[in-house]
Amino acid sequence: MLIWGYKTVAMFDLWSIEHFINGIYMAGVANFLIKQASKKIEIDPKSHKILNFILVLTAALFWECVEHYIEAGVIPGAIGARVTHWFQGVEHWSNRLIGDNLTVLLGWYVYTKNEKLAIPARIFTAIWMIVHVFAFPDSMYLHRLLFP
What we know:
Blueprint: E1 2-4, E2 10-12, H1 15-40, H2 48-72, H3 77-87, H4 93-113, H5 118-135, H6 141-146
Parallel strand pairs: 1-2
Helix pairs in contact: 1-2, 1-4, 1-5, 2-4
């Protein structure tokens, strides 16, 4: 296992940057949801931070679970084959279980220090996804381009 490199052999890859930024964005979404829920049910303001943490971690773990099955090719047919090809292999266990979640939680931590970063994080994530999904041929294209 490598610390940095291609996602199938390393704990961190170029997508770790997006996971970090997405952690900031998800913390902002979780904060919004908690505030909306607080209007309807009584939630102790002291528990907002831990609820935010739990929501962000749950979302990150849920995505990693879904992503694993997509990478493994459970979507049938031609669309499934294209999606599986786009993902470019199954992530190393350390990337999926440690690296991705650690960077999301680091993003969550940064959000707790500066909530105003949620809007730039949303813009960055949207641009990152549009470029990687619609412009690049697969998820690891930029990584191969920058780190041949």
